[in-house]
From TrEMBL:
Residues 156-255 are annotated as: Disordered. Residues 185-201 form the UTP23 sensor motif region domain. InterPro entries: Fcf1/UTP23, PIN-like_dom_sf, UTP23_sensor. Keywords: Nucleus, Ribosome biogenesis, rRNA processing. GO terms for cellular component: small-subunit processome. Signal peptide: none annotated. Involved in rRNA-processing and ribosome biogenesis. It comes from Boletus edulis BED1. GO terms for biological process: rRNA processing. This is U three protein 23. It is found in: Nucleus, Nucleolus. It holds the Pfam family UTP23_sensor.
């Protein structure tokens, strides 16, 4: 199998595992046609299923499906022998029904037993796509194909995820309407390094100290001048109210 297809299949099976609880060995329901085709192609069906599903598999056949093979007579003895090597799935149909109907009934509405289905029957595959989480395998000449997930599968997966993110009734009661959960305040801007992991600053050496005082005393530096100016203005404003011109105030009073 090509590397890319193997990766796609592995991802798809992990979707079935994570979202729908599929577990290895994957239980694969195999229909009678698939048994006949495998014998005709002289391929190892068990091994091929393991490759396409990217894991351990347990091939299974229903009572009705193996009955179909018995009815075909001696000419299909090797297909019967193959089917006999699989685990028998009891379907409890007293009288055998057509294989595809039997498989459909075993899958039911929700595939609760987590079966993979290997079938060539187009009608059955179409029907199984309507049920969420049914991995479907069919044969295309010598190659086994795992179908992409059906819409029903993807829709159900999304619904399950949305449900998982909604708070439960108990959680809602805990939170209450008046006490919204407190959120940790976030500092804006880039975070500094972790203060615990930063080395303490070495005490400044004397040469740096001198440099600094030099700057402070340098009156010509722009910062020093600014500071000086600001101080001056502050002084003047403090006395400004006392210095209101007496010539102006009388006019104010008269109006
Ligand atoms: Zn049956």
């Amino acid at each position: 199998m090509r590397q890319r297809r193997a990766k796609t299949y592995r991802k798809l099976m992990s979707l079935y595992s994570l979202s729908f609880g599929f577990r290895q060995p994957y239980q694969v329901l195999i229909d009678s046609d698939m048994c006949i085709l495998a014998v005709a192609a002289k391929t190892d069906l068990h091994q091929q299923l393991g490759i396409v599903l990217q894991g351990n598999v347990k091939p299974m056949i229903t009572q009705c499906c193996i009955q179909e093979l018995y009815l075909l007579g001696k000419s299909h003895q090797s297909a019967v022998d193959l089917a006999k090597s699989f685990e028998r799935r009891k379907c409890n149909h007293r009288e055998a029904i057509p294989g595809q109907e039997c498989i459909a009934s075993v899958i039911g509405e929700s595939n609760k037993h987590r079966y993979v289905v290997a079938t060539q029957l187009r009608a059955l595959r179409v029907m199984l796509r309507l049920i969420p989480a049914v991995p479907i395998v069919h044969r295309n000449r010598a190659v086994m194909i795992l179908e992409p997930p059906s819409d029903a599968t993807l829709d159900t997966k999304q619904q399950n995820e949305e449900k998982a993110f909604q708070p439960s009734a108990a959680e809602l009661a805990n939170i209450g309407v008046d006490n919204p959960p407190e959120r940790p305040r976030r500092r804006k801007g880039p975070k500094g390094p972790n203060s615990l992991s930063v080395k303490k600053k070495a005490p400044p050496d004397t040469s740096q100290k001198r440099k600094r005082t030099d700057v402070d005393e340098d009156v010509t530096s722009p910062t020093a001048q600014k500071r000086k100016r600001r101080r001056k203005r502050g002084d003047s404003s403090a006395t400004l109210s006392n210095r209101v011109s007496p010539a102006v105030s009388p006019t104010h009073v008269s109006t």
